[in-house]
Specification:
Mean pLDDT: 96
Structural class: alpha/beta
CATH superfamily: NAD(P)-binding Rossmann-like Domain
CATH topology: Rossmann fold
Order of helices and strands: EHEHEHEHEHEHHHE
Shape: globular
Distance between the termini: 47 Å
CATH architecture: 3-Layer(aba) Sandwich
Low-confidence stretches: none
Strand content: 5-15%
CATH class: Alpha Beta
Number of domains: 1
Largest sheet: 7 strands, parallel
Length: 270
């Protein structure tokens, strides 16, 4: 019987591949036999990640990128096709936040920086749209492929402070549903577009927001734990199974969905 989860030889492109979550997912997928194209801004970090994957017997290559620059992404795609011959999956994991796009406890809406708000929208939303537009093309040509966007709990619930980030992630969830219909109707059922919505995981971007220098939780971190039935933050490895499912044939009748991996955070009501 066919192994529906077999991704051996699949070429997987990961934007934001040098981040805490992206690098963990890339290493896992390489361990499952996928060929991983790690895209990120930091050459030195990317090279270290690739060397770590290769040391474990995996196949990977780093490509320096800028997800908001169509020309750079198009060159990345040409290079990946030259190196690996195809693109089977795209993980749009690039994203981030900026201080001016947040509203702190001692601030109000008038303190929001419209410029940084726009930059956060661009990085997260346009930074998902542009790679999708580029890497979808080889998928259309081969009539098969899977795209997984990265949404967030902030797309489901209007979390305090993260005004710009929440707006961008809500846009990604909507874009995911739109593209699921667009690709299936115009390019066939072989191409699927889904998203994953991680709960709270400690990353370089939110570490200072959720934890103190001694590792204890800030008041915001405590609020997250209070509203998470599992009573803890997530571990990056706990995203890997859902990603594996969404890019494999095990989910070949699944498109347009947002898979929540949050320890129950989104179920909490009071």
């Amino acid at each position: 019987m066919k192994n529906l989860f077999d991704i051996k030889g699949h070429v997987v492109v990961i934007t934001g591949g040098t981040g805490v979550l992206g690098r963990c997912i890339g290493k896992y997928l390489a361990g499952q036999g996928a060929k991983v194209a790690v895209l990120g801004r930091k050459q030195e970090v990317g090279n270290r990640i690739v060397e770590s994957i290769k040391a474990d017997g995996g196949i990977a290559k780093f490509y320096q990128t800028d997800v908001m620059d169509m020309g750079v992404i198009e060159q990345n795609c040409r290079d990946i096709l030259a190196d690996f011959g195809r693109v089977d999956a795209l993980l749009n994991a690039a994203g981030g936040n900026m201080p001016g796009a947040t509203i702190g406890p001692d601030q109000n809406f008038f303190d929001l920086d419209p410029g940084q708000f726009q930059e956060v929208l661009n990085l997260n939303l346009a930074g998902t749209v542009i790679p999708t537009q580029v890497f979808l093309k080889p998928m259309v040509q081969q009539k098969k492929g899977a795209i997984v966007n990265f949404s967030s709990m902030a797309a489901f619930r209007p979390l305090t402070r993260v005004c710009g980030y929440g707006a961008a992630k809500a846009g990604i969830s909507n874009f995911t549903a739109y593209m699921a219909h667009e690709t299936a109707r115009k390019f066939g059922e072989g191409i699927r577009v889904n998203a994953i919505a991680p709960g709270f995981f400690i990353t370089e971007q939110n570490r200072s927001l959720l934890t103190n220098p001694d590792g204890s939780y800030t008041e915001r971190g405590k609020d997250v734990i209070r509203q998470t039935p599992f009573g803890r933050m997530g571990e990056p490895e706990e995203l890997c199974g859902t990603i594996h499912y969404l890019i494999s044939d095990a989910s070949e009748f699944v498109t347009g969905t947002v898979a929540v991996v949050d320890g129950g955070f989104n179920t909490f009501a009071m």
